[in-house]
TrEMBL record:
SUPFAM superfamilies: Cytochrome c. Binds 3 heme c groups covalently per subunit. It comes from Komagataeibacter melaceti. One of its GO terms (molecular function) is heme binding. The lineage of its organism: Bacteria, Pseudomonadati, Pseudomonadota, Alphaproteobacteria, Acetobacterales. This is Cytochrome c.
Amino acid sequence: MPDVARKILWPALGAGAMLAALSTAPARADEPSAELLARGKYVATAGDCIACHTRPGGQPFAGGLSITTPMGDIISTNITPDPDHGIGKYTLQDFEKSVRHGVRRDGSRLYPAMPYVSYSGMTDDDVTALYTWFMHDVKPVAETPPATSLNFPANLRITMAIWNLVAGESEPETGDAATFDKLRRGKYLAHALEHCGTCHTPRNVMLSEKTDSYLAGASLLGWYAPDITSSKTTGIGDWSEDDLVAYLRTGHVDGLSQAAGPMGEVIEHSSSHLTDEDLHALAAYILQVPAKEDDGEHPARARAGQALDTPDIRSGELTRIDNLNPMDGKGVYDANCASCHGDNGAGTGDHYVPSLFHNAVVGSGHPDNLIMTVLEGVNRTANGVHAYMPGFDGKSDVQRLSNAEIAAVVNYVTATFGNGDHGVTAEQVGAQRVQTPKTP
């Protein structure tokens, strides 16, 4: 190559390389730190975003889950960073308005199945970390879930502006939430990130939370989110901090309770992934929430009942498979439950199958959760342990029980091992059966 060409070419290539380096430098500077991404992922986990924004068998955060409400079914949206189907075009300011105030990028209102009333208390730093993680680490999914269609007047999203005035918002916490003292951190987790009140606080006729009954228990999708105040009878006031931490980490505490349904999902996807420090902060705060008493819940729901101590004097006569006569509650229990829970209701020695006495679900004055457990079963994985019980609804691979059979066995179990026969009817079971989760 001639010297003149070298003198022109090499400086030009060098200048081009320098310009290329300068042009990519800002992109490298804008790359979020590993610490910020880790914090965003942790906030998303604590907020349990995946539970509502992922349909069964669907892609993470791509939406499509059907959430039953008194106004109709709300279909969760795609919150992946796909620009056309998700939130890829959202700025941080757009994201903050959605998360804290329930206002989408196009200005329309979100329905409060999205717990923005609770998330309004999040710190600026946590909102920023959450936005950064979604935009940089979540896989975009090019799917648009079916649109939500509610009954009038809820189908007019503008009505949510009026509802927001009634429901109110929390003032965002200030400072670095990671540095809060134990009780302040626990309150922040309970009120904002974990949004415990969304399920466990009863609501008024406008469906906003009754602030004077915080965590006192409420119906939810056929289930009953129980009183978790410091009441020693209706609530969890007789639990220790370690008991509650173990429950939030594993979904099971011997002789107290076990999680299924929506709470099982919370534990599987959210609370089981919190740090020990955060679990203890959350438990310490919840255990000092003022008690709300219910005269219908005596004795303490987690201490009710005892093992059945009755000799087995069955005749040995077999039940024919073509015998279509309805069985009573004990017959349904013997045929479907006793093989795991035992004739005496004591469960297994290793507590994998829980006892039916000294069991907060069986001992509750609200039979809703026992009905839903029989219908849906239990299927959660937390802390490396998979807890499973088959359901007995119309999709069961074990035994499909009728509404009358489920009512009979629930009444038998509560009368034998809990706080008495609740008089559950087939109609009540049928009403709860239709609230089991659906995929659009």
